[in-house]
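tool_log.txt
---
The assistant was asked to compare two proteins side by side. It first ran the structure predictor on the initial sequence, then on the second. Raw inputs and outputs are pasted verbatim so the downstream comparison step can read them without reformatting.
(1)
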Amino acid sequence: MSTNTSSFIDPDLMKGVEVFRNILKKARAIIALTGAGVSAESGVPTFRGSGGLWRTYQATDLATPQAFRKDPVLVWQFYHYRRELVFSKSPNPAHEALARFEKECKSSGKQFTLITQNVDGLHQRAGSENVIELHGSLYKVRCTECNVISDNHNSPVCAGLAKETTSLDELPHCGRPGCGGLLRPHIVWFGESLEPEVIEKARKALDNCDCCLVVGTSSVVYPAAMFAPELARRLVPVAEFNIQTTPETGNFQFVFQGPAVGSTGADTFE
């Protein structure tokens, strides 16, 4: 017995999907803004709300420069946990769809920029290339003395973090001759500003944008929360893909929400 699944699909929703797809086809400079909701579908915790505890600590209390100055061992243990957790996860269909879409844009001479608030690198692992990481990366470290930033995909970051307890001397340190400063995760912590060059790159992409996808973001973390509303005020078509409404939902021309389109809307823009 066959079932006509089209009877379960909201016709107004499908009309909106088709209108958006036509706009997307004509666009020449597209931006995707992504947030924690994308990686949550890979099993990466958001560390917000009820999921905000690590051991007995609020994760947000550890993501501050003050916490690192007070107890760098504890903070590094937290980020070691996060790194190892993400190592065990894989990109999901949303990551993969965005990576495929970027390739399609390149092949047709379009610009595509992915601006993410995520720090887990899953977009790159899925194949995305033109990625702006607003909040840094779990797989980069920065020296607290010379400020040099370097990639670090070691598992663990250093041998000391593989142990249940460790000391300050066993934490990762800068390998540059004459430095040896303590390394920190290259993450924008609460109370810190985004790097000026990162903001500049994002702003250039936003200035040239003629279509925007907002995928899996709560639209409450600034300055990223301002980006899509600013585009909407310029009458740039903005489509929000999320499992729930956000404070900015009412400002966007297209909203794809709930199980009918999926929380990522991955097949809506393909």
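(2)
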Amino acid sequence: MRVIALEEHFVSPAFLDGPGRYIKEQARTPASSQFLAWLSDLDTGRIAAMDTAGITVQVLSLGSPGVEQLDAAEAISVSRETNDYLAAAIRRHPERFVGLAALPTAAPAVAADELERAVRELGFRGALINGHTRGRYLDDQFFWPILERAETLQVPLYLHPTPPPQSIVETSYAGFAPEVTARLSTYAWGWHVETAIHVLRLVLGGVFDRYPRLQFVVGHMGEGLSFMLPRIERYLPAEVTKLQRSIGAYLRENLYYTFSGFTWTSMFLNLLLELGSERIMFSVDYPNASMVETRDFLERLPVRPSDKELIAHGNAERLLRL
């Protein structure tokens, strides 16, 4: 069975010399050094690991913190260099890698042009955006040139978590040991809630009424949205929101969802029941999660073979036009 993994990360030299320099600085222990090696490898080591796990294609992207917290000039430079770097790797391995662009969201008009360059010249199939841009969310009309261009190009935007704004960290997550606060505000809880709120802001802000063909992707089994959807729809009906559709309709028609390291059957079944197999796609979140374990989870899913084929590759092929 063909398997396409949607949220798989890498780093570029431009990123490591800029916003990702802390990754290099932390790479002093064997574990952190190995993590950097996995992120940096866009050749034989990564492909061998894909082969061992049974993964056909990785859709590669620059993960958090990305370039979204940079000033405009640096974000433009790092984005362009990173996209060119990834494009070279895809040219070396065109059957195994697909690209999602990094975008300088601090400069939306430039970001829209960079998205078009990445799609038309580099062959990328969309972009990944790491959450808010210095506390501003994509429902802000400041960013709408990016959303308009994505709809015009018919490519999706992957909304990836990033740490909440510092003011929220201090208000909601501080007061514990530093490591507890760091984890609670990010990958244990905070940045998942942050991403779910970001999605709801897109819906409630009328983004999908303005751009009805626009498609977003979120990971981590939907960032909790499917669990809360019945409650959200009860208390935010269309007569309150004044939107053209129900919130559930937007979540089923304008968003896709991936695993990205969440290998718990109960969470998958909730996502399946609320949002349907035609909106779920496989991903590992490599190297943050294990290719082998996540591929095994896919194999064990309690779904019909036809649904498993959709999740493994069919939905991604349709969305990314592969």
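---
observation on (2): Residues 72-92 form the longest helix (21 residues). The radius of gyration is 19 Å.
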